[in-house]
Specification:
Length: 247
Amino acid sequence: MKSVALVSGGIGGIGSEICKKLSENGYVVVATTFNKEIEKADEWVAAQKENGYEMLVEEADVTDFEACGVMIKRVEEEVGPVAVLVNCAGITRDTFLKNMDESKWDAVLSTNLDGVFNMTKNVLDFMLARGNGRIINISSVNGQRGQFGQTNYSAAKAGMHGFTMALAQEVARKGITVNSVSPGYVATSMVMAIDEEIRNSLIKQIPMQRLAEPAEIANTVGFLASDQADYITGANIPVNGGLFTSF
């Protein structure tokens, strides 16, 4: 039985490329979605199949701890052992803090940060029992440097890396690595839909003078999921074209 790579938010722009890369690396890939019908999961699966990728989709709301647990148990029993968990599900509800109501704060924190706990906690016992696993959290450059109008999103993404560093220490002797990847601005359909003038102003801030391709994020995830990254844990890998650097 092949090992499984479970990717929350796997049918999005970045998530789809991550799923492809992990499939190329030999994993049985299961993407999660909060609602198969709304997100047109069947069409996504068919499109992947046309391109030579066999993908599965499981429905689970990452903000619901019990739903995540039921879904992960089903994957373990019916598909195979989850060797790689990629926490990629995320949303934005941008506005200035002075205009932000509680619902916008709660929605982003529940999905982007609580979702990491809900997925990871439910898969961790299986990984611990087997003595191996890879957990990879998709954070953001804005979790490192903050971003105007994104106090909720920036807080969630910064919290994600704190989670990464703490859990990495807890499971370092158990054969499990935990890392995060922080993309900068990526050429997804959402970013490309931004007004061209605004998009170009963003690109001017990037030393490489271009957006990242989703596949470049996926390549980093693929590396962290591989045996070549055995000694990397608790790390945050920036993929931002030089937009933000730190040491």
